[in-house]
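Q: What would this complex look like in 3D?
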Amino acid sequence: MKAITVVPGEPEQVRVGEVPDPVEDEGALLVEGRLLGICGTDVDIVEHGYGSLPPGQDHLVVGHESLGVVLEAPEGSGFSAGDNVAGIVRRPDPVPCPPCAHGEWDFCRNGKYTERGIKELDGYGSQLWRIEPAYAIRVSRGVGDRGVLLEPASVLAKAWEQTDHIFARSSWRPRTALVTGAGPIGLLAALLGVQRGLDVHVLDINDKGPKSALVSDLGATFHAGDLAYTGLSPDVVIECTGHGPLVFDLVNAACPNAVICLTGMASGSKPSPFGADEVNDTMVLDNTVLFGSVNAARSHYEQAAAALADADSDWLDRLITRRVPMDAFPDALHKTEDDIKVVVDLRT
Ligand code: BGC
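A: Here is my prediction, written as structure tokens for the whole assembly.
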């Protein structure tokens, strides 16, 4: 079968070529890969050396945002041939630590978790893949190709769930949400915020491409440029740019009792001086909670599947701005200003 293989940190080693078909040990469900979503983590793997090879292999099958169709499913697995499925990314550590032992691999404590297409496990960037039924999520037929958005949406479902848990600390409830970054993660964060009934604002560095129309068609408000010029004092922030210095501006701009959730990761680190004492004092005096959120457990994929099913399908379709064949994977790593989500069609 054809697969997209990479070596972390060695862009010249990206290959689209033949690899052996998956063996039954890799999971009872045999799946035909349909679409593969590309995100900043894939760029970080290829260009900045994030992630790691499976032990004993000299390459990694890349890809963690999956959509495929079940070809073979054993009786009693809960799946049948023809089902659309997406694969969960993370697997619990082998110890396992207490959260992993409870299916909360997204809260793994010892860092020995593995992630398909990222850390020590081959991913979903191949014409065929296998998966254990416990790590497959059925995508309803009506969601169609938009099911490739399930994995990124699961990351936001977790981020919002954690945010909700933190707000439960007092009787006060948030009304105004700010999402920073209008890429696929930011737009899905905005979708989930609107579905929660919040007044959602989305800030991006510029208004090029389809993002401002996507934000307003969601019923949210788009802002381009500097945070200071928005005049916003949000109750809740979902930060989706990974731009470290912005975090401190957000702490200062957010209202008392705000919750700020960080979901983005900076590619490579740049030294950035900031007013540590000012941030300290603001957070204490305002009861601010600043927290990070990564990955997703099974329940978050289920919440994400419900959110995608409830969303306007034309709006979701507009998030997928480009489809490329497998051989064009390297192009998919580089977005144009008209791109939101680029996907690889694993059938071409
Ligand atoms: C993925 C997560 C993963 C994280 C860190 C993200 O791009 O969506 O599932 O845990 O990268 O590796």
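A: To summarize the key features: The CA atoms of residues 192 and 307 lie 7 Å apart. Residues 39, 41, 64, 89-90, 115, 118, 151, 155, 294-295 surround beta-D-glucopyranose (CB under 6 Å).
Q: Very helpful, thank you.
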